[in-house]
Amino acid sequence: xxxxQPMAAMGDVQSRATAGVVAVLVGLAAVAWAITAKQALxxxxxxxxxxxxxxxxxxxxxxPLFMGMWLGMMAAMMLPTVAPMVxxxxxxxxxxxxxxxxxxxxxxxxLVVWTVIGxxxxxxxxGFRNLVDPAPAWVAPLGGLVxxxxxxxxxxxxxGACLKACRSPLNFIMTHDFGRxxxxxxxxxxxxxxxxxxxxxxxMSVLVVVGLMNLVWxxxxxxxxxxxxxxRYGVAVSRVAGATVGLLGVVVLAQPxxxxxxxxxxx
Length: 267
Known about the structure:
Layout: H1 5-43, H2 63-78, H3 83-95, H4 101-116, H5 119-128, H6 139-153, H7 157-166, H8 169-175, H9 181-204, H10 206-210, H11 215-230, H12 234-254, H13 258-263
């Protein structure tokens, strides 16, 4: 009996550590969602997508403000999806006797990747924010093609490989060990961020079409990312999402006027 008590104590410590990590990630995501929702209500029209080119696209958002907004969006959408990976990393570094700084470094490295990729939507925003109403004839076909491409990508081997990496937290952490300390943890987080980017970039590009701060689409995509990476039927979710987005793209190509309706579904 006495020999089992230390094991029980270790289990309690592990459970508390797990609960602590989850609580922190959920708390950060909740704060990010609150900030993002407020930004969407206050200045959502400044970061509209292809579907709102023209009348609802003021051109006075500075690049630093855009990047800050993007970081908040990524924290809100992606932190819940990465919780199992952070837990796996925490378990490994804790087993090596390391504290909480490596865990924070892992999350920071992950978010750095998603923040840097924000340059791509920023360039897209800068490229079409000055277009005037009515929108040029090529805008709707471009939006439709983006949706079709995003849908097709969900069925490619590249998507499959990246999704598999995201769905195997412990295996990923054990095969992407960059050493002890915060620096190694940050590199591991950035490595996972790159694989996560490979998994999610296509569906994330849908926001460029429907509006970068379209809360309805943000919530829907966040749910898809969470399920495809963490649910037992996640691969099926990924393919259903791909088929749905691809079909919407075909509809927009056939009926360009529907792009505005698709992009106008704001909270």
